[in-house]
Structure formats: C-alpha cells, structure tokens
Write a structure and sequence with these properties.
The chain is mostly beta strands and 339 residues long. The chain contains 6 helices and 18 strands. It folds into 2 domains: 117 residues, Glycoside hydrolase family 3 C-terminal domain (Rossmann fold); 191 residues, Jelly Rolls. Strands 6, 9, 10, 11, 13, 16 and 18 form a 7-stranded antiparallel sheet that branches. Strands 8-7-12-17-14-15 form a 6-stranded antiparallel sheet. A 3-stranded parallel sheet has the order 1-2-3, with no helix packed on it. 29% of the residues are buried.
C-alpha cells in the first residue's frame, strides 16, 4: 500500500500538528485488508516524520520512502525479490530524525513534539524483526469542534477541487493551471500571502451553457450539528470581473440531491479587487432542499456567463463573523440586478 503526503510548495505545508490525515480513504482500505487477513506492507511517501500510529499498528511492515522523486525504482528494488526469490538489496537507511509518538507537544503545542516511537538512527534490515507494542491512537491535538476547512492554500482533508461543463462535469484540478473539458472554466493558482495559496477562477460564456467549479469528497459529512449551531459556508474571495449572468452557489448531498441559492447579488455588491469574506448559513441550503446528513459537495459555484473571482479560503464554521453573514433573503432570484 503506497500512500503519503500530497505535494505542497513552501509554507503551504506548514501545519499545527505532525499528524498525517488521509485524503483518499487510505486508512479505510488498510483496515479492510487487515480484516480480511491480508498482510499489509505500508510504503509512506513524506518529506518529514509524521504521527501515523494507527497505520503502524495495522501494518506488518512499514517503509518510510521519503520523497523518491524519479527514483521510485530504487524503492522497488528493496521491496521486491528477484525471479529466483532472492533479496535484491537490503534496507540500509536509518532515521535522520526521531519518529513522533504524539501529534503535538502535550505540554505546549507551539513547541516541537518531545515523545518518540523510534530514535535517530533506527531502521531494520530485511532479516530483522521486532516485538511490537501497540501504540496509542489518540490524537491529543485533535480539533473537536464542528468547524472544517475545505480549501486553504489547497484542498483540505478529503476534499478535492473539480471543474466541469456539459462536456465533462468531473475534471479534477491537480495542477497549477487547469480547465474544464470545453475550456469554459479555467482554474489558475495565484499568490496572495504565500506561493500558490489561492485560486483564480475564470468563467467564459459558452452558448448559454452552465459551467462550474466545486469542492467534493468521496466521504459524505453530516452537517446537522453544525447547522443547529448556526453554522455557515464561509468563503473568502475577491471579485476580479463581475458576473454577466446569474451565478448560483450550491451544496450537494450526492447530486441531484442539493440545495441552491442565488449568489449574483453578493458578487455584484462586492468591491472589485478587494478581498472580502461572506458566510452563507447552511440553513439557506437546507431550506432549498439540501439533506444535511450526507453532504459530499460543500461548495459549488456555477454560471453560464463571464465571471472572474479569486478564492483563498472555503470553510464550514459554527461561529462566522457576524458582519460576514448573508441573509437567506438576499440569496433569491436576482436576474434584474444584472441589467
């Protein structure tokens, strides 16, 4: 099982914890393999030691391959035997840094982790074995709030960024510049505070057909408690070019289950070139048909016209700034405002 950190540029990889969060259901897959009695060799791609105690507990062998770049063949050489069932190369690498036993410093979260599973210089050969003592899987630095980051510097957690149009509704954005299948939407990484921490989304009118960008996860999330706490979808954005056609904002509960509001007035009222933050209560989406128990798409922006907007953050928050909250009454049919 090969998995690990997603790529990041300078400063975007900064984190308040050394815990590794899976984005594509890797933990679920490992657990399924273990339940079926299938031995698991975990190959972890990472640029730093990370807290991953639960995977260490589940794995029969755990290999830290760091970031091999174009030299993945070297990893295969030590993992696989040759045609004669002989070991090709033994493991000789040793840890250059201790491996963390905790996700944060228990006494002061601003300080480095000071409890370790393996010391500097640790590393086994293919002939060595070790007696394993189950590690604690408790995240002591876990955020127990209902708040959830969807996009900040890049997609967060299990969320992924997509664009689409009638030619193909599911084009995942995985590079600095991407566009929908017909080219009616372009998503480009831009710099706000650090390198490529924001996205410029440019919609181009295409014969009146709808185009969209969205944040989706393969794991639905229950927003019932967040909604009851007065939660909202919070977007920090900057209008570069105002919309020429109605623009909708939507949340999906496995489409066609969805809740849709009109976002045109918010965009038209925003000052061009200035960053602003707006919070749309999840209740507005629920009133429009969203099933809060199984939200798999936290953010959809769609229009059939021209629009350019920069986005630096998308999150689900229980306590958005009061002045940022948009009334559901302002999220209604607003076609006349475009004239």
């Amino acid at each position: 099982m090969v998995f690990g950190e997603t790529p990041y540029a300078e400063m975007q990889g900064d984190a308040y914890t050394v815990a590794w969060y899976d984005k594509r259901g890797e933990r679920k897959l490992i657990n399924a393999l273990v339940e079926k009695g299938i031995p698991v060799v975990a190959v972890f791609l990472t640029g730093r030691p990370m807290w991953i105690n639960d995977v260490l507990n589940q794995s029969d062998a755990f290999v830290v391959s760091w970031l091999p770049g174009t030299e993945g063949e070297g990893i295969a050489d030590v993992l696989l035997r040759d045609a004669n069932d002989e070991v090709q190369f033994d493991f000789v690498g040793k840890l250059p840094m201790p491996w963390p036993a905790l996700d944060v410093n228990a006494k002061d979260r601003d300080m480095p982790v000071d409890a370790f599973v393996f010391p500097i210089g640790y590393g086994l050969s293919v002939t060595q074995d070790t007696v394993w003592s189950t590690l604690s899987e408790e995240l002591i630095g876990a955020d127990n709030s209902l708040d959830q980051e969807v996009f900040k510097g890049g997609p967060r957690g299990s969320w992924k960024l997509f664009t689409g149009d009638k030619s193909d509704w599911t084009v995942e954005v995985t590079s600095s510049v991407a566009q929908s299948s017909s080219g009616s939407v372009e998503v480009r990484s831009i710099d706000r505070e650090v390198q490529e921490d924001s996205r410029r989304i440019t919609f181009a009118e295409s014969d009146g057909d709808l185009s969209l960008v969205y944040m989706q996860s393969e794991y639905p999330t229950d927003l019932t408690d967040l909604n009851e706490a007065g939660g909202a979808l919070v977007i920090e954005f900057r209008v570069v070019e105002k919309p020429t056609a109605p623009t909708i904002l939507r949340m999906d509960c496995k489409y066609p289950c969805s809740g849709e509001v009109q976002f045109t007035k918010v965009l038209l009222d925003a000052s061009v070139g200035e960053w602003t933050q707006k919070a749309i209560p999840t209740a507005c989406f629920a009133d429009a048909g969203l099933s809060l128990e199984q939200v798999n798409t936290a953010f959809v922006m769609a229009t059939a016209g021209d629009l350019t907007v920069d986005i630096t953050e998308i999150k689900l928050a229980t306590a958005p700034a009061i002045r940022s909250i948009v009334s559901c009454a302002d999220l209604v049919n607003d076609t006349e405002l475009l004239n």
